[in-house]
Design brief:
It is built from 16 helices and four strands. The chain is mainly alpha-helical. The model is unreliable at 134-146 (pLDDT under 50).
Length: 351
């Protein structure tokens, strides 16, 4: 039965109603339902989707606020009228006003969104769903408030994902650029014997491997909510897509980065590159399908999004045409507009 509710939630996300509008409706419905855990969930989902803290703070008193559009105000008024906790029927006046802002099919979807969130509320409240503030969190790795991490990277390579995540987190860090010669030098081998990036120097040691670095950052800074929603399912989704990018998509690029040059036969080498382009396009097509109805690959912003952005960027640099992957291009454009992404790109000399 819970899977049916999740399926309905997915269908609503793909229904054509604006994501920003659905965030506001979900938050207002759960405020009316009195589920503090749900309020926290929907607030964080809205923030991850790009909604401002100011607007979310004013949802409960939206009638007095100037920050909502006429369509959003109509949706919030309808939400308060049709939520089961609200007294009385929908008035003819409200029905007419809302129909002026929404087509009949849109209004039906809007009403379903309210009903769906209220259903989750009615499950969460009686079963004592615990607000995160009152829960016993898993202790993050110990770190000093004044400790500074140091990221070792090559511009444009996979550590760009960690660079983006560090910007999203907002913790102090240093970044050291390297070239291929540096990585094979004795000085760098003392940091990472594999002679590869990334390497993240932290209090107490060095973390290597892109997935390892990204996992560390998500665990060490749980307040950034980049490792999932704290549930087994939510966290698994983040690791599922992180693993997909790290273990499937990233290695598929290797022939395009010269890994088959040792074959010594230009025609054979070109065949490996042609095959790689097809393989990467197919894999990115899977991500494209996942992004339908979503702003982020795992549902909310996570470490997997930063890594996915990097490999999409690579695709353009090695001549892989992804113009047909519309959802992926939407995601890439949104990431490019992100302030943290831009800071990381500029720091690496890429923007």
């Amino acid at each position: 039965m819970l899977e049916a509710l999740r399926a309905l939630d997915t269908a609503l996300a793909r229904s054509g109603l604006e994501r920003s509008l659905l965030h506001l409706v979900r938050l207002r419905t759960t405020q009316l339902g009195g589920c503090i855990d749900c309020v926290d969930l929907h607030r964080h989902a809205a923030r991850a989707g790009g909604e401002s803290a100011q607007r979310l703070d004013q949802v409960a008193a939206w009638r007095e606020s100037p920050v909502f559009t006429a369509r959003e105000r109509a949706a919030l008024a309808w939400t308060e009228a049709v939520a089961p906790v609200a007294p009385g029927p929908v008035s003819d006046t409200l029905h007419a006003e809302t129909r002026a802002a929404f087509a009949e099919a849109e209004l039906a979807r809007l009403t379903m969104a309210v009903a769906l969130v209220d259903s989750w509320n009615r499950l969460a409240v009686p079963f004592r769903s615990v607000h995160p503030v009152g829960a016993e969190p898993t202790a993050p790795p110990v770190r000093s408030e004044d400790s500074t991490m140091k990221l070792h990277y090559m511009p444009g390579a996979c550590p760009l994902a960690a660079h983006i995540v560090l910007e999203w987190i907002g913790a102090p860090y240093e970044a050291q650029a390297h070239n291929h010669d540096d990585l094979h030098g004795e000085a760098y081998r003392r940091i990472n014997p594999l002679g590869a990036v990334p390497a993240l120097e932290v209090e107490g040691g060095v973390i290597t491997q892109n997935a390892g670095v990204l996992d560390y950052l998500a665990e060490a800074f749980p307040e950034a909510r980049l490792g999932g929603d704290g549930t087994p399912r939510g966290n698994a989704e983040v690791h599922r897509w992180l693993g997909f990018v790290n273990s499937d998509v990233h290695p598929a690029f290797k022939p395009l980065f010269g890994a088959t040059a040792y074959l010594g036969d230009a025609e054979v080498i070109e065949k490996t590159k042609t095959h790689a382009r097809k393989a990467v396009h197919r894999l990115l097509g899977i991500a494209n399908e996942q992004l339908k109805g979503r702003d982020w690959i795992a549902g909310s912003r996570s470490i997997a999004d930063a890594y996915l952005y990097v490999v999409i960027r690579w695709a353009g640099s090695v001549g892989i045409d992804i113009s047909d992957l519309t959802e992926l291009n939407r995601f890439y454009a949104a990431m490019n507009a992100d302030a943290g992404v831009q800071r990381a790109l500029k720091a690496e000399g890429l923007a």
